[in-house]
Write a structure and sequence with these properties.
Layout lengths: L11 H18 L6 H16 L4 H21 L7 E5 L9 H15 L3 E4 L5 H9 L4 E6 L17 E4 L2 H10 L3 E4 L4 H16 L7 E4 L6 H13 L14 E3 L2 H11 L3 E7 L2 E6 L5 H11 L3 E9 L3 H6 L6 E7 L4 H13 L4
Parallel strand pairs: 1-2, 1-5, 2-3, 3-4, 5-6, 6-7
Antiparallel strand pairs: 8-9, 9-11, 10-11
Length: 352
């Protein structure tokens, strides 16, 4: 005997209407009116999958990806205000390798400066970084592989460890949450992660951040890699020479730490407000310093001007770092390599 209040499974129109009603009731229960539109988009996307009657594999991918991201967001949330550095590199490096020691020492020294370490939680370079930083200062994003990559013993069973099925969700978390990146020599996976970083930086899909390409003393890995850029990519105009500003190649722990910490010594953050790029910095610029920015970087603007600014109305509405100094420009949204060079120049200025 059927229930009059039930929806017949063979009536797709009634099924979609019932699902829509349930989603709308769910939205009404959410006590967060400021973000209701975002919840509506997220839930609406799930409804679109149902309405399109997408196949089971697509649903599994979408459901797994959303679940993995939700779990990772939850794990990272308590540490939002802490600076983080992500380490990439080969899982095949042994603990008696010079690269292992380089990684361990750098992570250890950054942890003493208050930086948390983020890794893929596996063996090799990932294990070295977590061993150096210590469990309390580490977050892990492990990948489940057919041949079973288990989390290394320094992070295994830690509440700050998340297990993921997909590389794309894992890379999102390894890149999204950090303020600096250290890449050690590695194989296809490391190359994939490093070029992902450079692609996001080159296209402005992530905020500027320091990237260290760290080798062991006497190592040739990154210099050989750079030679490939210089002999193939740059001459063929596949990339611009300014794009090499996105990274620093070194075998020095001291130089790595200086590059990471110096990047935030004056520069703070940036934000687009309409077609205006606002760069926030800690110290006032002198008229001479501002003039030098205009002289050397006006070519990345649409109108040739770079000016001091006060917080713009959208920034005030969001209470967005209102205590910071600001400059504003109409950035061409293409010259991100030279924008990074301008940030380096801002960091070179002395406090006024």
């Amino acid at each position: 005997m059927s229930n009059d209040n039930s929806v017949q499974r063979n009536d797709p129109i009634q099924t979609r209407e019932a699902m829509r009603n349930k989603f709308e009731k769910l939205l009404e229960l959410l006590d967060d009116s400021s973000r209701i539109d975002l919840y509506d988009i997220a839930i609406g996307s799930l409804l679109e999958l149902a309405e399109d009657n997408t196949d089971t594999l697509n649903l599994k991918i979408a459901a797994s990806a959303l679940r993995e991201m939700a779990q990772a967001f939850s794990i990272f949330q308590p540490y939002t205000g802490i600076k983080k550095v992500t380490f990439f590199g080969s899982s095949r490096i042994k603990n008696d390798d010079a690269l292992y020691n380089q990684t361990k020492e750098l992570a250890k020294r950054l942890a003493k400066l208050g930086w948390m370490t983020v890794t893929g939680a596996g063996p090799g370079i990932m294990s070295a970084a977590i061993e150096g930083a210590g469990r309390e200062m580490s977050l892990g994003v492990n990948i489940r592989l057919p041949h079973e990559q288990y989390a290394n013993p320094f992070i295994a069973n830690d509440p700050k460890l998340v297990e993921m099925r997909y590389f794309f969700t894992r890379k999102l978390m390894l890149i999204k949450e950090s303020d600096a990146y250290v890449v050690l020599p590695g194989g296809f996976g490391t190359m994939d992660e490093s070029f992902e970083l450079f692609t996001l930086l080159q296209t402005g899909k992530m905020n500027p951040a320091p990237v260290i390409l760290l080798d062991a003393p006497g190592g040739t890995y990154w210099n050989s890699w750079y030679n490939f850029l210089g002999t193939e990519l740059i001459p063929l105009e596949m990339i611009h020479r300014n794009d090499t500003a996105f990274f620093m190649i070194t075998s020095s722990i001291d130089a790595s730490i200086n590059e990471i910490t110096h990047f935030y010594s004056n520069y703070h953050s940036l934000r687009f407000v309409g077609d205006i790029l606002v760069i926030r910095h800690r110290h006032k610029l002198s008229p001479e310093q501002l003039d030098s920015l205009v002289e050397d970087f006006a070519d990345i603007t649409l109108d040739g001007t770079i000016r001091k600014a006060t917080p713009l109305p959208p920034e005030r509405a969001d209470n967005d770092n209102l205590d910071m100094e600001r400059i504003a420009l109409k950035f061409d949204k293409a010259s991100y390599g030279k924008l990074r060079m301008m940030i380096d120049r801002i960091n070179s200025f002395q406090s006024q």
